[in-house]
Design brief:
Layout lengths: L1 H5 L1 H19 L14 H12 L14 H15 L1 H14 L4 H10 L8 H29 L5 H13 L18 H16 L1 H12 L7 H25 L9 H17 L12 H13 L12 H13 L7 E3 L2 E3 L1 H28 L1 H6 L4 H12 L14 H16 L1 H7 L21
Antiparallel strand pairs: 1-2
Helix pairs in contact: 2-3, 2-4, 2-5, 2-19, 3-4, 3-18, 4-5, 5-7, 7-8, 7-9, 8-9, 9-12, 10-11, 11-12, 11-13, 12-13, 13-17, 14-15, 15-17, 15-18, 17-18, 18-19
């Protein structure tokens, strides 16, 4: 138990907290906000946490920030989105140049599948992929933003590329991306950046190596990530198209409606950009959005949520699993019981955090609920969005009380640090230190 609190877990958690505090002070500088519109410290801290946790929620109008302020936010997104990269740099390279066994396990669970003894190779790979993709994304966005008459098209392209790839959902525009709801090229570029940031560096590297070296095959993990991502995108687009073609999408031509539905399906799982306000969608779409936000992106990525592979591993086991061994077959490979148990644990603990968050928000927003200014569904939407580090909102973030803002901050931390927070809050048992073996007992279930 002691090791769980004394090594990588607390170091990584502390890194996010310190970075958020630093961000809040940077956003308090006079150069960061428009003259005459100072931002309260708690709101700056909320924005800092939201940027570091790549969530995108904000309690204030983003127009209050200057270009300098947006530069600070972009840096927070980069260092937060690539938090483990910086974590390795600060806590591993400087002291020993080696990854210890405990920290190796931490890195493997959080980011990298195959970890070697030299962390600089991990950093180099992540940096190359990140900077290359973000640069290409920014260059692709520039001509389209310029054609739309955006004065600061170079800066905006760079910021949006960073925000999209890091799945942050922050926008330099007050209406997110609503002004581009009929701009298919912009939506597609942003969507591609979101997907690339949401599938994970392990998958990106495996796909790249497979494309370069024909003999190198895609791993089972990569196949499951790509398949689950594709299914969620297609199913999501069909659901939004079917349920809102006569509602939120009714004012758009068919081609633009299809593009908007596809964009909504992608951004709701990981990023939080909006081309159409959430209030415009149907109740069915809101419920489906909550499901997508809960699922999130893929392991080893910048996205939050329980992760796509967690959902699909559990679905595979539920319908095709071996109940005796606790394993399941996928792609002619056996997924062992340990992974099934880990996936189950992640889902249950995530539901526990979200449930506690909703109950606490209901208590701190009781007056708003009584007056009819908010609904429990809106609070649930806000909580799942924070936990999944998505950043979508029903428009109530700015009306939250001080206590509610603090609750959402904790939920964002829980969603960003994922298994680290879970380990701290719900440490479980260490079977390696278990001395007493108890008799087996069967119980009835289902």
């Amino acid at each position: 138990m002691k090791n769980r609190f004394s090594t990588g877990n607390m170091q990584l958690f502390s890194y996010f907290l310190i970075l958020s505090l630093l961000g809040s002070f940077l956003l308090q500088l006079p150069q960061a906000y428009v003259s005459g519109t100072p931002v309260p410290w708690l709101d700056s801290f909320f924005t800092g946490v939201s940027a570091v946790c790549v969530t995108g929620l904000s309690t204030i109008d983003m127009r209050v920030y200057t270009k300098v302020g947006f530069v600070f936010i972009a840096l927070l997104i980069e260092f937060g989105g690539l938090g483990l990269l910086t974590y390795i740099s600060l806590f591993m390279i400087i002291p020993s140049q080696k990854i210890s066994l405990v920290n190796r396990r931490l890195v493997k669970d959080f980011f990298i599948d195959n970890v070697n003894n030299n962390p600089t190779s991990i950093i180099r790979i992540i940096l190359i992929y990140t900077l290359t993709i973000q640069l290409i994304g920014a260059v692709c966005l520039m001509p389209f933003l310029r054609s739309y008459g955006i004065e600061s098209w170079i800066f905006d392209s760079c910021f949006l590329s960073i925000s999209a790839f890091c799945n942050a959902g922050f926008s330099v525009y007050y209406d997110s991306l609503a002004r581009f709801n009929n701009a298919i090229p912009i939506n597609m570029i942003i969507s591609i950046l979101i997907v690339l940031g949401g599938i994970g560096f392990v998958v990106l590297q495996n796909c790249f190596q497979s494309a370069i070296h024909k003999k190198k095959h895609l791993t089972t993990h990569t196949r499951l990530v790509l398949l689950s991502t594709l299914i969620l995108i297609v199913v999501g687009a069909v659901v939004y198209m079917g349920s809102d073609y006569d509602a939120a999408l009714t004012k758009l031509p068919f081609k633009e409606s299809l593009s908007a539905a596809l964009f909504e399906s992608i951004t709701t799982r990981t990023c939080g950009f909006e081309t159409i306000p959430q209030q415009s969608f149907s109740h069915f779409s809101w419920t489906f959005t909550i499901f997508l936000m809960f699922v999130g992106g893929s392991p080893g990525s910048i996205a939050g949520g329980i992760k796509t592979t967690t959902l699909f591993v559990l679905l595979l086991f539920a319908f095709r699993g071996d109940q005796n061994t606790g394993s399941v077959i996928f792609n002619k490979r056996t997924i062992p019981a340990q992974i099934i148990l880990k996936a189950t644990s992640i889902v249950i603990k995530s539901i526990a955090v979200i449930t506690v968050g909703i109950f606490l928000l209901c208590f701190t927003q009781i007056q708003s609920l009584i007056n009819g200014d908010m609904t429990i569904f809106e609070l649930m939407f806000e909580t799942v969005s924070a936990f999944g580090t998505v950043g979508l909102s029903m428009g109530i973030t700015g009306a939250l009380t001080t206590a509610s803002k603090i609750i959402i901050i904790f939920v964002m931390f829980a969603g960003r640090t994922a298994f680290v927070t879970m380990t701290i809050l719900f440490p479980g048992q260490d079977s390696s230190k278990e001395i007493i073996r108890y008799p087996r007992s069967d119980i009835l279930t289902g």
